[in-house]
Design goal:
globular; 182 residues; AhpD-like; mainly alpha; Single alpha-helices involved in coiled-coils or other helix-helix interfaces; 2 domains
């Protein structure tokens, strides 16, 4: 089992201290992931920037959750699946969507299922997608912009999921009720 240091305001590298302080102010705590990311100011800033950009895409709360959780589950992230279960609740996402994503079952909404399917294809196939798969996605009501936005969400999730795998980041207390394993 691997671990990486989980930083706080006192132990964080100087260039990470402001990001750690912002995290504490925004969350009322320093999430373990943020504490680990603080070990590299550049990675922490990249993660925060990608998060801000992804949440500003054309996706609504349900769609953001579909992209995040599809990737989290596929990557088997012990930390992000429970965290995003809690976040989905705060975002008022239908609990049936969250449970289907956690259990890898098709979504009832055909458009959201098309988003889940293409996100999974992009993640599993490392970006290799057939024209037929894109055509099916477009037929569900999405366009090229959303294909690119999935890639943005995947970029953010690679940072968090891989960091959590290597760090073996403990699940924070507020998320423990949503513990998950594949």
């Amino acid at each position: 089992m691997t671990t990486l240091k989980i930083h706080n305001l006192e132990t964080a590298p100087e260039r990470s201290k402001e990001l750690v302080a912002q995290s504490l102010k925004s969350n009322g705590m320093i999430p373990g992931l943020h504490g680990v990311l603080a070990g590299s100011p550049e990675l922490f800033e990249a993660y925060q920037t990608l998060h801000k950009l992804f949440t500003a895409t054309s996706f609504n709360a349900e769609e953001l959750t579909v992209v995040w959780q599809t990737i989290n589950v596929e990557h088997e992230c012990h930390y992000c699946v429970p965290a995003h279960t809690a976040i989905a609740g705060m975002m008022k996402v239908d609990q049936n969507i969250t449970e289907a994503l956690r259990n890898e079952t098709p979504l009832e909404n055909p458009k959201l299922e098309a988003l889940r399917t293409l996100t999974l294809i992009i993640t599993r196939n490392r970006g290799h997608v057939s024209q037929e798969e894109l055509t099916a996605f477009y037929a569900a009501g999405y366009g090229e912009q959303q294909v690119l936005e999935i890639i943005l969400g995947l970029s953010q999730k690679v940072i968090s999921n891989y960091t959590n795998h290597i760090a073996n980041t403990p699940v924070d207390a507020p998320f423990q009720a949503f513990a998950w394993e594949k």
